[in-house]
Specification:
By secondary structure, the chain is of the alpha/beta class. The protein binds one RNA strand of 74 nucleotides through strand 3, helix 1, helix 5, helix 7 and strand 12.
Length: 462
RNA sequence: GGCAGGGUGGCCAAGUGGUAAGGCGGAGGUCUGCAAAACCUCCAUCGCGGGUUCGAUUCCCGCCCCUGCCUCCA
């Protein structure tokens, strides 16, 4: 089957056809860099990383753009709290962001624009909106978007302006002509970062940056726009209003939104304070475990976070690594090649069906079993072994050396372990199983599990 | 209140108009000195009630429950 993607705009799965044959433009809303990212952010990054990888696998030349919001109320507030300037804060957080993303094995997008580096584009777009009568300068000097002037407002989130208004709990800003209007440009306040503009010194509103940067880098109309579910409204709705209003052309063709990460069935979020940062999680689990955990659920479904769920993901990964380890010892001898692609085909069908990673993982597990079975029976696995590595790579898992995966720990005395194993094997040779078991028990105390195989004894950490 | 998305085995999680992938976990077995790993076998009728259909978990209607968005939020 060909690639089908669920489009929030049409609320249906549709066959994906790029605007320009062979090329895909994809914009994903990144993070506001005022704090470390948490598991919810990690999910977006991993979800779109997999999408990016799969699009490339399909042969598309992908322009993947993901922004950094580096000017914003929260950044200003946090910088003030820490008594540093905004730039220092955002630089630090961007660097931390990269540390996390690299650990999670997320490929770098082709472009990562920062809001502060695109002031002229934003200002230009706001000017266009003002010229067209879609935006106005309010009494307090802010520039606001007149939502009711834009016809399609609400088409993405399925909201109707009047219903929004009745349910609105927004504090009514007196300067706005309509409570739903949103700010494009804010007048500068003392001691805040500010830029010159036709409306005086100020800074952009949140939504305009994504419109300006996506259109600048990908054109007025592009293929895919993504982000977390919570950005659907108002952020993405406003982006549409801005971009289509200014350009007079359709904005993104396909809208992709990933589901939340929950804790105890409740959304993980900064405001609820129930979040875990990526680096916290990585203190307890290897990065691939987090990635595996995320891939185990379809990107649009809610994902419940818990240590137990991570533990389960780790065990699943162990299983794949066991197969990788067996193949690794094999490859050293004669190498493997791939001839038969039944599994690769199943995998492709899964991924083409709206990036169904749980299904794709199931294929991987089936493939692992098939390889193990063949290996157990001494059969040739050269026909399918190559695919195992390839498919794992497409999901970005099982990328470490297998031996290392099972044995990695910071303070591990490998020499001691190996001498104990030698000691035990000597005992086994003497058929002194009491002593052999005692040594094994001693190793078990160190969390070391032994596996006696035809080619000797291997070990791993519990 | 409006809108959106869900309720599948002990847990997690896919999926399909013709009696349900995969992972974790559990039970038994093969292998092993014993283990471990691997392999084999087994462990669900899909929230409730109707309807359409030869046949529904999958389509329709009603109900119950959960979550999210409607405010900054991935």
């Amino acid at each position: 089957m060909s690639l089908h993607i669920y489009n929030t705009l049409t609320r249906s799965k549709q066959r994906f056809e790029p605007l320009v044959a062979g090329r895909v433009g994809m914009y994903v809303c990144g993070v506001t860099v005022y704090d470390h990212c948490h598991v919810g952010h990690a999910r977006v990054m991993v979800a779109f990383d997999v999408i990016y990888r799969w699009l490339m696998q399909l042969g598309f030349d992908v322009s993947y753009v993901r922004n950094f919001t580096d000017v914003d109320d929260k950044i200003i507030r946090r910088a003030n709290e820490l008594n540093v300037d905004c730039k220092a804060l955002t630089d630090e957080m961007i660097s931390a962001f990269y540390t996390d993303m690299d650990a999670l094995n997320c490929l770098r997008p082709t472009s990562e624009p920062r809001a502060t580096e695109h002031m002229p584009e934003m200002i230009g777009m706001i000017e266009k909106l003002v010229d067209k009568g879609l935006a106005y300068v309010a009494d307090n000097g802010d520039v606001a978007y007149a939502v009711r002037k834009f016809d399609g407002y609400g088409k993405l989130s399925g909201k109707k302006i009047d219903e929004l208004e009745s349910g609105s709990r927004v504090d009514v800003d007196e300067a706005k002509r309509d409570p739903l209007d949103f700010v494009l440009w804010k007048q500068a306040k003392p001691d805040e970062p500010a830029w010159d503009s036709p409306w005086g010194k100020g800074r952009p509103g949140w939504h305009i940056e994504c419109s300006a940067m996506s259109c600048t880098q990908l054109g007025a109309t592009f293929d895919i726009h993504g982000g977390g579910m919570d950005l659907k409204f108002p952020h993405h709705e406003n982006e549409i209003a801005q971009s289509e209003g200014a350009n007079g052309k359709p904005f993104a063709k396909v809208w992709v939104h990933n589901g939340f990460v929950n804790i105890n069935q409740e959304k993980m979020s900064k405001s609820l304070g129930n979040f875990f940062t990526v680096c916290e999680v990585l203190k307890k689990f290897q990065p691939e475990v987090l990635r595996m955990f995320i891939l185990g659920t379809h990107y649009r479904s809610p994902l419940d976070f818990s240590d137990q769920a991570l533990e389960t993901a780790r065990h699943g990964l162990d299983r794949l690594y066991e197969t990788k380890r067996r193949l690794a010892s094999l490859c050293e001898e004669k190498g493997v090649r791939s001839e038969e692609h039944a599994y690769a085909l199943r995998f492709a069908n899964a991924m083409n069906d709206d990036f169904n990673t749980p299904e794709a993982l199931a294929v991987l597990f089936d493939l692992a079993r098939s390889i193990n079975r063949a290996l157990d029976q001494g059969e040739d696995v050269s026909g399918i072994a190559g695919d195992f590595g390839t498919l794992n790579g497409l999901l970005g898992i099982t990328q470490q050396d297998a031996e290392n995966w099972f044995q990695s720990d910071d303070d591990l005395d490998v020499a001691l372990i190996e001498s104990l194993i030698a000691e035990r094997n000597e005992a086994r040779k003497q058929r002194d199983f009491g002593r052999a078991d005692a040594v094994r028990e001693q190793l078990a105390q160190m969390n070391v599990i032994l596996e006696d195989g035809p080619h000797g004894t291997s070990w791993k950490l519990k």
